[in-house]
C-alpha cells in the first residue's frame, strides 16, 4: 500500500458514498410516484426524514453496533459505546487500505437508512407518521446494524465453516428492509378499497414520471452501492461489478416485461421498473462473483419473480402499494441463493450457508419488526382513521397538499 | 504506466460511465416533458427499455462489431463472435493504459443506447411500440456499432490520409441518432392536427419542469460523455474538455435565446433548453481541440442552428415533437464540420475528411434506418390508429395513465 | 507532489465541479416547487439561464477579478484583463498541487452562478425578466468575484491578523446571494395578496415533489461544494468534510422539524427541506474544522434559525416565496459565526474576524445590490404589472404554460 493508491481507493469510496446517498431520492421518487397524490407529501416527508434518522442514529450507536471490533468476532452482538471516536491513524492506510475512518463511517451510514426506506413504500397511504418514525429509528438504529454485524462486522454468519456470502447486501440490506415491509403491511392491513368482494382493485400510482425518475436514480446509485462494496478502487473488481450491475438491471427489465406481458397482455411500465430493481437486488449478493451471462440470468429471473411476487402478495391480500416486498424480499432471497447456484462460489455447502443466512436474518427481522409494529399498534395505534385515509394523509398529517394548484380528477 | 495511474484512469472511466448512464434519464425526462400527458407512459417506457436493449445487445454482438480488433483495421465491418470473452490481462494496464476490459465494454455500452433514444423523441406520440422496439434493437445492436467501428474501432474513416476526427461522437453518436430520427419522422408523417390548412399548430409539451430536469441531467452526464472520451484521467485534457463542454452549453443557451427572441419575440424556454443541447452536441466532435473562445463560438452557432432547424423542419412538415433532428443531426453536422474550421486540426484537408465522414455515415444511417422503418411500415405497420393517437398511446398501448389523479384540461 | 497524486487530486476536483453543477438543477427544482404553477416556466427559465451567465461572465471577467494574483494580495480589488489566458505549466502540478488551471477555473465558475440563483427564489413570482437578467449579469459577473477575492483571492479579509475564515462560502457565496435576495425582495415588495389586512396568507408552492427533488440534489451537490473546497483529494480532510456535511444536513432537518412542530403543530415538509439546507449552509464555513458533534449542533441550530427566520421575515413583510433569505443569509451568518464558536479555530479573536467579514461583505452586497436593483426600478422598472402577476409570469413573459395539459384548481 502507498499514499497514492490509498488516496485513489478513498476517493472512489467517497464517490460511492454520494451515489448511495442519491438512492434516497430514488426511493422517495419511486414511492411517491407509485402512490396517490393525496399521500405524496407524507411519502416524501418520510423519505426525507429517514436518511436524516439513518445518519444520526448511525453516528450515535449504529456504527459501533455494526463494527464492534475484533473482540466480538464470530459473535451475535457487540457494542463499543455511544458516538464516534477516532482511532489512531484514522486518516491513513494504517486504518484501512481502502479508506479513512470517516469514509468507512459515512459509506456505511448511507446504507443504514435504506432498510427503513424500503419499509416506507409497503406501508404507504395508511400508516400514522409518529409510529412510522418510531419504527424507523429503532429498526435503522438497532436492528439493521445488529444484522450487519453478523456478516460485515465479522459476526457468526461470517464465521461459518463455509461463510455466508453477501457482497453488497441482498440479505443484509434489502431483505432486512423487505421483512420489515412484510410485517408492516400485514399488521396494517390493506388500504381501504383494495380488496373488495368483487376482487382486487388496482390503485394506480399518481405519477409515472416520478416512478421512472426514481428507478433511474436507484440504478445510478447502485453503481456506488455495489461498486463501493468492493471497498477499494481495484480496477478489475469494480469494473466487473459495474458490468454485472448494469446487465442484471437490464435483464430484470426484460424478465418483468415478458412475464407481465404474458400474464396481463399489456406493456406495464411499473412492472418493468420493478423488474429493473429486482434484477439489481438479485445481483447485489454476488455482483463480484458472476460473469456477464450469469448476471443476465440472475437479473432476468429477478424480473420474473417480481411479477409473480406482486401477483402472489395480492392473492394473499398483503397490500404493498409499491411492490417493495417483491423487489427487496423476494429479490433479496433470490440473489442470496444465486450465490450458491452461479459463479465463483457455487456449491451445495454455499447454498446451505446462504439458506442459514436467509433464515436467521429473516427470523430476527420478522420478530423484531413484529415486536416493534405490534407494540405500537397496541399502544398508540399505527393506522390512520378511515376518514383520514380517504381524504389523504397529506391534509390530515401535514395540513398540506403536494399539488395545490391542480384539480384532482372527480 | 504504473498501477497507480492505471487505477486513477480506470476510476475516472467508471465515473464517466455512470454519468453517461444518467443521460438516459435525461433523455427520458426531456422527451416526456416536451410531449403530451396522454403519451407520457409510452415515452418513458421506451426510454426505460432502450438502455436495457443497448446494454444487452452490446454485450451480445455490439461490442464485437464495434471493436473487432486489428485484423479489421481500415475496414468497413468486422466481427469476432457473439458474447463477451475476456482477453488475457483484461484487468491490467497490459489491456489498456486507461481502463480494464470491462470498463471499456461498459463505457461503450452506455453510449450505444443513445442512438435509439434520440430517435424516440422524433417519432413520439404516434409510433407503435412493437415496431419501435424492433427498430431500436436493430439500430442499436447492428447499425450503431458498425458506424462506430469506422472511426473508433480503427475502420476506414480512421484510416483516411487525414483521418476523420470525431472526439466523442457528434457524428458517430448524435448524427447516427439524428438520421434515424429524420427517417422515422418522415415515414411516420406528422401528428394529427400538427400541419393544417390554417398552418402549423404548436403542440406544447406537457411538463416544462420535466424538460428542464432532462436538459440539466444531459448536461451533467455530458461531462462524462465528453470527459470520459479522453479515455484516461489526464488532468490537462479532461479539464480542458470540461471547460469546452461547459462553455459550449452555456453559449448554446444564448445562441438559441437571442435567435428565438428575434424570430418569435418571446423568451422560449424550450428553445433555450434545446440550444444548450445543440451547443453540447456541437462541441462533442472537437471538445479536446478547442479553446474557450472557440468553444463559445461553436456552442453559440449550435444554439442559432437549432432554432433555425426547428423552423425549417416545420416548414417542410417533418414533425419532430422534441426537436431531436435539429439538436442531434443539425448540431452533429455542425460540430463535425467545426473540427475543420476551428481549433488544433483546422484546415481544408480536415474539412474534406469531416465532410466525407458526415456523408458516409449519413448515407449508411439514412439507408439502414429507411430499410428498417420501411420494412416495418409495409409489414406490421408503424403508426398507431387515428383513434389511438387521439386518445393517447398510454391508454391504448399500456392501459395506463401517467397522472391518473389529475383532471386533464378541457 | 508527483504525477499520480496530482492526477487524483485533479480528478476529485473535476468530479466536485460537476456535483456543484447539478446544484443548479437543485435550485431550479426547489424554487419551482415552492412557487405557483403559473410562474413555473419563468422560474425555470431564470435558473437555466443563470448558470449560462455565470459560466460566460466568469470566463470573460469574473475569474480574473476573483484571482488577480499576488500583486493584489491583501487588497480590495484587482483585475488582470478580459478572458482566459493560460499560464505556463497550467496542466501540471507546477500550477497547483490540486488541479490544473482549467479545473481551477471551472470549479470556481460553477460556484459563481450560485449567488444569483439564490436571489432568484426570493424575488420570484413578481420580478420582470429583463431586469432580473441584468441584475444577475452584474451581480455574478462583478460583485461576487470582488467579494470572493477578499478571502479566496488573497484579499484583505485573508490578510487580517486573525484571518477571516470561510471554508466553502457560508459568507462568500451564500450570504452574498442572501443579501441580494433581501434587497431584491424588499425593493420589489410582497406578492399581491400575501399580506392583507386580515394578516399573512400562506401561498403554497405548486409541487412538493419538485421541492424535494431540489433539496436532495442540492445536498448531493453539496458534497462537491464542500468536499471540493478541500482543493485536493486528501483522504482525511475530504472524508471529514463529507461527514460534517452529511451530519449537519441531517441535524438541520430535525432542528427545523422540532421548531416548526412546536410553532405550528404540524409536520411541515417545506420547513424540513429548508432546515436541511440551512444546516448545510451553516456547516459550509467550517466543514473542515468541526467534529461530528459540533456539526450536529451547527446543523441543528441552522434548522431552528431557518424556521424563526421565515416567521420573522413574514412579520416584517418581506416576502420571500422560497425562504431563501432565511436559508442563505441567516444560515450563512450563523455558519460564519460558528467558526469562531466551535471547532479548531474557536476563540474570541476569530469571532471578531468573522464579524468583520460578515459586516464588510454584508455592507458591500447590500449597497451594490441596492444600487443595481434601485437603478433598474427607477429606469425600466423591476416589477411586472398587477394583471401580469395575477395571470402569471409564464403567459405574460413567455407565452407558455408549464403544464398545458392539466386543469388548474378553481
UniProtKB/TrEMBL annotation, chains A, B, C:
Protein name as catalogued: Ammonium transporter
GO molecular function: ammonium channel activity
Listed GO CC annotations: plasma membrane
Compartment(s) of residence: Cell membrane; Membrane
Family matches, as Gene3D superfamilies: Ammonium transporter AmtB like domains
Keyword tags: Ammonia transport, Membrane, Transmembrane, Transmembrane helix, Transport
Domain Ammonium transporter AmtB-like: 11-403
Organismal lineage: Bacteria, Pseudomonadati, Bacteroidota, Cytophagia, Cytophagales
Organism: Cecembia calidifontis
Amino acid at each position: 500500500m502507498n499514499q497514492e493508491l490509498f488516496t485513489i481507493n478513498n476517493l472512489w469510496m467517497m464517490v460511492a458514498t454520494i451515489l448511495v446517498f442519491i438512492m434516497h431520492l430514488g426511493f422517495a421518487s419511486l414511492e411517491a410516484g407509485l402512490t396517490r397524490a393525496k399521500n405524496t407529501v407524507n411519502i416524501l416527508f418520510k423519505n426525507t426524514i429517514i436518511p436524516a434518522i439513518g445518519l444520526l442514529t448511525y453516528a450515535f450507536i449504529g456504527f459501533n453496533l455494526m463494527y464492534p471490533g475484533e473482540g466480538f468476532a464470530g459473535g451475535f452482538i457487540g457494542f463499543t459505546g455511544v458516538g464516534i471516536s477516532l482511532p489512531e491513524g484514522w486518516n491513513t492506510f494504517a486504518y484501512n487500505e481502502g479508506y479513512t475512518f470517516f469514509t468507512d463511517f459515512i459509506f456505511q451510514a448511507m446504507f443504514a437508512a435504506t432498510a427503513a426506506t424500503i419499509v416506507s413504500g409497503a406501508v404507504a397511504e395508511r400508516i400514522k407518521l409518529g409510529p412510522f418514525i418510531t419504527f424507523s429509528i429503532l429498526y435503522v438504529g438497532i436492528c439493521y446494524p445488529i444484522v450487519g454485524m453478523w456478516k460485515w462486522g465479522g459476526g457468526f454468519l461470517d464465521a461459518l465453516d463455509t461463510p455466508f456470502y453477501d457482497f453488497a447486501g441482498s440479505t443484509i440490506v434489502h431483505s432486512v428492509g423487505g421483512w420489515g415491509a412484510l410485517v408492516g403491511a400485514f399488521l396494517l392491513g390493506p388500504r381501504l378499497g383494495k380488496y373488495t368482494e368483487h376482487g382486487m382493485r388496482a390503485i394506480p400510482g399518481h405519477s409515472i414520471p416520478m416512478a421512472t425518475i426514481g428507478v433511474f436514480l436507484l440504478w445510478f446509485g447502485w453503481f456506488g452501492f455495489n461498486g463501493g462494496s468492493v471497498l477499494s478502487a481495484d480496477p478489475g473488481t469494480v469494473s466487473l461489478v459495474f458490468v454485472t450491475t448494469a446487465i442484471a438491471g437490464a435483464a430484470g427489465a426484460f424478465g418483468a416485461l415478458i412475464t407481465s406481458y404474458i400474464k396481463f397482455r399489456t406493456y406495464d411500465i411499473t412492472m418493468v421498473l420493478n423488474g429493473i430493481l429486482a434484477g439489481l437486488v438479485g445481483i447485489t449478493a454476488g455482483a463480484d462473483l458472476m460473469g456477464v451471462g450469469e448476471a443476465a440470468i440472475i437479473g432476468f429471473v429477478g424480473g420474473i419473480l417480481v411479477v409473480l411476487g406482486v401477483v402472489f402478495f395480492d392473492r394473499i391480500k398483503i397490500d404493498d402499494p409499491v411492490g417493495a416486498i417483491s423487489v427487496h424480499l423476494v429479490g433479496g432471497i433470490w440473489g442470496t441463493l444465486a450465490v450458491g447456484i452461479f459463479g465463483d462460489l457455487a456449491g451445495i455447502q454455499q447454498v446451505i450457508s446462504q439458506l442459514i443466512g436467509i433464515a436467521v436474518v429473516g427470523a430476527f427481522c420478522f420478530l423484531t419488526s413484529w415486536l416493534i409494529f405490534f407494540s405500537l399498534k397496541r399502544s398508540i395505534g399505527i393506522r390512520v382513521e378511515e376518514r383520514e385515509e380517504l381524504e389523504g394523509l397529506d391534509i390530515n398529517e401535514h395540513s398540506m397538499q403536494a399539488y395545490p394548484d391542480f384539480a384532482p380528477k372527480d
